[in-house]
Design brief:
With about 400 residues, this protein is mainly beta. The protein is about 10% helix and about 45% strand.
């Protein structure tokens, strides 16, 4: 016998079953719809395009929370974007005085600080309010006849933002064969004092970067030209002891020119691999991901063993920028051939080629590796869903 209280709702197995079936059907429909949207995004080659800069984009950097993106340009401005909507959040104009040459611009991982070098003078400012925190005038041997201001071609903040590494040349002081020597300096960002200085580099340092944990500092040098067959170099220091841990040369091949340059360097998230794009001779020389000495190329070296990855051809012009994915399994290269290429680190196999209307100057992965941003010579920034994202 069935007892029902007045005003209560009668529940039957049939009614409950129908309710559950409807709930499952609706939930499944929502899941399938979301999966369809994600699938379309993952396989789409159409990027989100950020427009605002009026000249080539020099630097692209994601905030460590992935919510925003900062870019710096030859138009002397910095812009901050919402990475989800593409909306511009901030515009910092006139980061340098008007003049000849391009600034060197780097950001801290939280995008709260920016360092700008222009003609040897370095300023550190807050974002987005552009408040000056420190000014570094890197004159070395001040007060002596040998005093000089080194050229600065590359900079990088340590992960905690407390140190700033600069790489360049000692233009006023001859290095090997009387050529300008290379120099790497680490500065305290608060005091502006020198923490570490290395003058061991044979030629100008064209790139510097830190490992994710801040324990390693890596630099790459440009090679010598003219009658000298000078190899580019890669140097790796222990950031705490300041002692060099690894050093290897990137030798030129005379078939493509008389010099070689380690134009940029990238270190894997676990600090075990270093990737180096190597340019020899003309920027239009043939290129590939290789082990040994070849024209323009990318070398991926395991630091513990000193071994390089398997050679793979595919690049048509010199690499302008290089970066490991956050999980370290892929490598992205920005090329003068207007293509961003994605590579498998272990096999050297090309995974994807993403085209841009102009030469790509900078490339950067989002912190979760799901997106890839690239800045171009035409002043635009493109954001793709990383093709290998599942």
């Amino acid at each position: 016998m069935l007892h029902v209280q007045p005003g209560s709702r009668l529940k039957t197995p049939c009614a409950e079953g129908l309710k559950m079936k409807t709930l499952i059907t609706v939930t499944l429909a929502v899941v399938l719809a979301m999966a369809n949207v994600l699938a379309k995004a993952a396989y789409s080659q159409e990027p989100v395009v950020l427009k605002g800069h009026t000249s080539r984009v020099l630097t692209v950097a994601w905030a460590d929370d992935g919510k925003s993106l900062a870019t710096a340009s030859d138009d002397r401005s910095i812009r901050v974007w919402d990475s989800a909507t593409g909306k511009q959040l901030a515009d910092v104009p006139e980061i340098t005085r008007a003049g000849y040459g391009s600034p060197v611009v780097v950001f801290t991982t939280d995008l709260k600080l920016v360092a700008v070098n222009y003609w040897g003078e370095i300023t550190i400012r807050t974002l987005p309010d552009n408040r000056l925190l420190a000014r570094i005038d890197p004159i070395l041997d001040r007060g002596q006849k040998s005093a000089f201001r080194p050229d600065v071609f590359a900079m990088a903040f340590s992960p905690d933002g407390k140190r700033l590494a600069t790489g360049g040349s000692t233009a006023a002081v001859g290095g090997r064969h009387g050529l300008p020597g290379g120099i790497v300096i680490v500065w305290d960002t608060e005091s502006g004092e020198i923490v570490h200085q290395s003058n061991q580099l044979s030629t100008a340092a064209s790139s510097v970067t830190w490992s994710r944990d801040g324990k390693l500092l890596v630099a790459g040098t440009s090679g010598a030209g003219g009658e000298l067959q000078e190899a580019g170099e890669v140097w790796i220091w222990d950031a705490e002891t300041r002692k060099p841990l690894h050093h290897f040369s990137v030798k030129p091949e005379t078939k493509y020119g008389e010099w070689a340059s380690a134009a940029d360097v990238a270190i894997s998230p676990d600090g075990k691999h270093v990737a180096v794009p190597v340019t020899a001779g003309s920027r239009g020389a043939p290129a590939g991901i290789v082990i040994e000495d070849t024209g323009a190329a990318v070398r991926v070296r395991e630091l513990e063993t000193g071994k390089d990855t398997e050679p793979v051809k595919g690049l048509k012009m010199a690499v302008q920028g290089i970066v490991f994915s956050p999980h370290g399994m892929q490598l992205a290269t920005a090329g003068g051939d207007k293509v961003v290429r994605l590579w498998d680190v272990e096999t050297g196999k090309q995974l994807a080629a993403l085209t841009s209307p102009d030469r790509v100057e900078a490339v950067s992965f989002s912190p979760d590796g799901k997106f890839l941003a690239a800045g171009s010579r035409d002043g635009t920034v493109r954001i793709w869903v990383t093709p290998t994202t599942n």
